[in-house]
């Protein structure tokens, strides 16, 4: 008998086969016929057993899993999901969608997952305009991060966020624990909508090493919180989590100011932040080509005028918050520059329709308006912060 047990896989027997849950929020399906080709089998939630020679079973089952991972989908909306791991051939630097972003400071961003359990009306990452989700292997993220941390002159701060909510990343606790083992890391912060937080997992995250929680609380009224998140929003629960974090760690309340929608809420959120003695970082709603647009954005000049007015009214700092501290540090080498013509290997679809994930010189290059799945030549049109966007040549 051979038993296959995995930390991030759960198995469920169905009439015609086996449903497999990966990292809690992704799944794929294996037919009984495919499993029977390996040998007689029995399924338990935590593992699968085969009556077969060990070497034969291992070879066949792992080949089957590798093939099935190409059919990985999100359980939220059945969208395809790309699993980026150390053997995927996909680097973790170069994309703004996933992986690692270093902006030549002591703050390094980690983007482990693109899933979100809300669909906020102001979101810069509109899910209906995304055709793919991405999740990154935790060990791969840590291994690649260590290489960057070693290049820095100062101790670094890590911010976990990105195009999804990190509380949906099943390896979040292990990620934080492994980050804390890196001696050169000082602060570890995370940005979340707070929906899945509770006292138990807040305590676990604090013990693991999280030092700062940034919670995107956008309203203090149930009706408007529901409207802004486009979901039933557990406002009371999130407020209680904010209070608990403020008592036990560092909390930053991070609402988005949406003109004509949550104007009054901003002042109520300021009062709440003063009540629990936590800083508030108000963000201006900005328009993005592939984001949502519930209202017309206001200029940054007008936005800062509003913040200055609120600073005087409530006697607090709203325009100089730097928590944790961000300062310049060693920049990563940039293998490409804007207008360079390079060859890239196209390895996968990217999140936006008709865009691809290309790879060259250990960097991800997002290729727009691309319909090929092979090596092609492209022109770099964006290189800022080692995030690369390109257009195909002659397509």
Oligomeric form: single chain
CATH topology call of the largest domain: TIM Barrel
Beta strand count:
22
**Helix vs. strand class:** alpha/beta
**CATH H-level superfamily of the largest domain:** Aldolase class I
| Count of discrete domains | 3
Low-confidence stretches: none
Report Rg: 23 Å
**What's the CATH architecture name of the largest domain?**
Alpha-Beta Barrel
N/C terminus separation = 54 Å
The residue fraction in helices comes out at 25-40%
Q: How much strand?
A: 25-35%
Query: In which order are the strands of the major sheet placed?
Result: 9-10-12-13-14-15
Shape: globular
Describe the main β-sheet briefly: 6 strands, mixed
Helices, by number, come to 9
User: What does the average pLDDT come to?
Assistant: 95
Which CATH class of the largest domain?
Alpha Beta
Please summarize what this structure is.
The protein is built from 9 helices and 22 strands.
Describe the structure.
With 395 residues, the protein is an alpha/beta fold. The chain folds into three domains: 2-71; 83-314, Alpha-Beta Barrel (TIM Barrel); 341-392, Nucleic acid-binding proteins (OB fold (Dihydrolipoamide Acetyltransferase, E2P), Beta Barrel). 26% of the residues lie in helices and 27% in strands. It is built from nine helices and 22 strands. The strands form six sheets. A six-stranded mixed beta sheet has the order 9-10-12-13-14-15, covered by helices on one side. The longest helix has 15 residues, at 54-68. The protein starts with a strand and ends with a strand.
